[in-house]
Specification:
rod-shaped, mainly beta, two-stranded antiparallel sheet
């Protein structure tokens, strides 16, 4: 038998062990508390009918609320008729007159909402409407991320921004940037223009429409734009189009690698082409400007102008080309005398008449068509009288004939050479063979063309000539005529010199062919400028 002290100590330890074991069993039966969610939880602020807390199982609690519900999560406010908050799935679901106010970013309304509290992603359906203070979006259903403020719809949507309406099959709305990315069957309608495309970026704040796919634009004036890249702002009127865009503005067609529009000025760069179907003209250049209001065009960087004809178009190249309306240059008067026209009377100018136009070329001017070519330093052409005015060392070639002078007027009829006038120190050279040239010089020279080919020339005022005489039988050279006369007429046949007629006070000498070499038979100021002559139209594009 144990002593009393030993029995007392043993009883103490036994009691303590039993109490500790019981405490552990009781503690194991108690549920583990779930930490409270202070960041992503939704707080019910108010309701008018009832609020029910329902425990589904050990891990699921439902908060059911109805009647003008108002709830909060951070700065986001939820309104609805009824809602259920699930503690396990962390989903807040709402029905009836659903509305979310996401701070000052956006307001969204719908009939039904599924909201993932942790991810802060909302799924709306039923007459969804999103507004950001600038524009509004309506769509059957919408996904909206509260973290990134990005909304997505994929079953058709409609954006209204003041008077602008934009529809598409899909859309991605970036609330912070006020940008909407539209995809599939995109159509924008505005009082100023319409846009049809497959993809478009639109900013509801600035009104910028950024183009990222093949796009067709028609504005209120009927102007048509085809482009694959660029932007258009209906508020400022500014636009830029890239990737070889095209604009059709009335009878004017504009094409270029990049087209910029500021106010009423087009700036076209990179293989620019401006065609005027009313005038039958086309201007090409590395850089071209057009004023839409005045219809003036300025072209630089190796510009070329093409004046269309049935089979023999005229090509003009220069360092700079400029074209505008004659009324802008001289005004619309009953009759007028233009300085550049040497007193030529011109009929009253009609602002809408197709002949109410001129163009100028500056520096290194070259002109080419199949029957006639020319060069000079500057040129003026009026569509009213169809005349090229060539200044500063002009040269005109027709087949084997060359005409020079201080100033040359080349008159055309039906877009073909009709008459040429050379003023002051006029000189005509007709090449026969190597170093053998027929030559005529005078104060003034008038040449006439038939079907675009030179037919005859009259030289008057101190006229001089050297021409080679041929035998009618075998066309061999028999002599050289060197004469002076007041008026000399030259006639051509089959584009070659046929005969020369002296009209009054003729003096001169006929040299036997063996007494003079072709090299010494030269009139004063003789020049043969074949190296300056454009040989093909393709040279003008180099």
């Amino acid at each position: 038998m144990k002593p009393p002290a030993t029995r007392s100590i043993f009883k103490y330890f036994l009691t303590s062990a039993m109490l500790l074991l019981l405490a552990n069993i009781i503690h194991a039966q108690e549920p583990v508390p779930v930490p409270s969610d202070t960041v992503n939880s939704i707080k019910i602020v108010s309701n008018t009918r009832n609020l029910t807390m329902k425990r589904v199982d050990d891990s699921t609690n439902l908060t059911i609320v109805a009647g003008n519900v108002k709830a909060l999560q951070g700065n986001t406010i939820f309104y609805c008729d009824s809602a259920v908050d699930n503690s396990r799935t962390r989903i807040f679901e709402a029905w009836g007159n659903v509305r979310i106010v996401d701070g000052d970013t956006a307001t969204i309304s719908a009939r039904h909402l599924i909201y993932h509290r942790d991810k802060k992603v909302a799924y709306f359906d039923g007459n969804v409407k999103l507004t950001d203070g600038k524009g509004s979006l309506t769509t059957p259903d919408l996904e909206y991320d509260m973290y990134t403020n990005i909304g997505i719809y994929k079953n058709g949507g409609r954006v209204v921004n003041q008077k602008t309406v934009l529809t598409s099959q899909e859309g991605y709305y970036y609330a912070d940037l006020k940008d909407v990315y539209f995809k599939k069957d995109v159509f924008l309608k505005d009082p100023a223009y319409t846009i049809t495309t497959d993809s478009l970026l639109y900013n509801t704040q600035s009104g910028d429409a950024r183009i990222i796919a093949q796009t067709y634009i028609v504005d209120s004036s009927g102007r048509k734009i085809r482009t694959k890249e660029g932007f258009y702002n209906q508020r400022t009127g500014q636009a830029q189009f890239g990737r070889r865009s095209e604009i059709i503005d009335g009878k004017t067609r504009i094409t270029g690698d990049v087209i910029e529009l500021t106010d009423s000025i087009y700036r076209v760069t990179g293989n620019a082409i401006i065609s005027d179907t009313a005038q039958g003209t086309t201007i090409l250049g590395g850089l071209v400007f057009q004023d839409k209001r005045t219809e003036a065009v300025l072209a630089t960087r190796k510009p070329v102008m093409i004046v269309k004809q049935d089979k023999d178009s005229i090509y003009i190249a220069a360092d700079t080309l400029f074209t505008a309306k004659l009324t802008a240059l001289y005004g619309a008067r009953d009759s007028l005398t233009m300085d550049t026209l040497k007193g030529t009377k011109v009929a009253k100018l009609n602002d809408k008449d197709s002949t109410n136009r001129y163009f100028e070329a500056f520096h290194n001017v070259r002109i080419f068509n199949d029957s006639i070519q020319a060069t000079c330093d500057s040129m003026f052409y009026s569509f009213q009288d169809s005349t090229f005015r060539l200044y500063q060392d002009p040269v005109v070639w027709a087949n084997n004939s060359q005409i020079t002078g201080d100033t040359i007027y080349l008159h055309t009829k039906n877009r073909k050479a009709d008459r040429v006038e050379a003023f002051e120190r006029s000189f005509m050279v007709n090449k026969m063979d190597h170093e053998a040239y027929n030559q005529i010089k005078s104060t003034r020279m008038d040449g006439y063309f038939v079907n675009g080919n030179i037919d005859s020339v009259r030289a008057k005022g101190y006229a001089e000539c050297i021409y080679y005489i041929r035998d009618d039988a075998d066309s061999s050279y028999t002599g050289i005529n060197q004469s002076k006369c007041d008026i000399i007429d030259i006639y051509f046949q089959e584009q070659a010199l046929h005969k020369i007629a002296f009209r009054s006070q003729v003096t001169g000498t006929i040299w036997p062919i063996r007494q003079k070499s072709p090299a010494e038979m030269r009139l004063p100021n003789f020049r043969w400028l074949e190296e300056r002559r454009p040989k093909t139209k393709y040279e003008l594009f180099e």
